[in-house]
Amino acid sequence: MLLIAGVLSLTAAARFVFRLQRLDAVDPARLVSQLRLSLAASILLATTGGLRLGLAVANDGQPLARLDLFIGVATVLLAATVLALEPRQALRLSAGGFFLLAVVELAPRAAGMPAALAPQWLVIGGGAYDLCAAALCFLASRR
């Protein structure tokens, strides 16, 4: 069920971004669309940060729990920062945040380290989702 929700939400976002790309660079509708997408990216970042916070609290005794707690708080603060920026800057910052989250989630898997706090399917799926979200946010921020 989570896989279907992820695929559908990324498909809808991709369709929105490709429609946004067809708009003229000086069209006010483009700015409004970028603002809407940056708000959605902020919500996704805050949700991802909340997930990491919940995993850290649920696995308090494990060694990497404090690192996940820090990453969760940093992600929620990033989401709050995105709300205060101009839409193009917000989308670029969101793209960077999603990319860093994907690296944090997928790099230990590439090095062969076992999953510490979350099931492997959640980590790999979350990393792939974050990479796709980063690409879409970056594409939407281009002129």
Proportion of helical residues: over 70%
Biggest sheet layout: none
Structural class: mainly alpha
- Counting structural domains, the number is 1
The tally of helices reads 5
C-alpha geometry: elongated
Radius of gyration: 16 Å
Secondary structure tally: strands: 0
Give the rounded overall mean pLDDT.
Answer: 89
Unreliable segments (pLDDT under 50, ≥5 consecutive)? none
User: What is the end-to-end distance?
Assistant: 35 Å
Return the string of H and E elements.
HHHHH
- Binned strand content: under 5%
What labels would you give this structure?
mainly alpha, 5 helices, 143 residues, elongated
What does this protein look like?
The protein contains five helices and no strands. With 143 residues, the chain is mainly alpha-helical. The protein has one domain (2-21, 29-141). The longest helix has 31 residues, at 28-58. It is elongated. The mean pLDDT is 89.
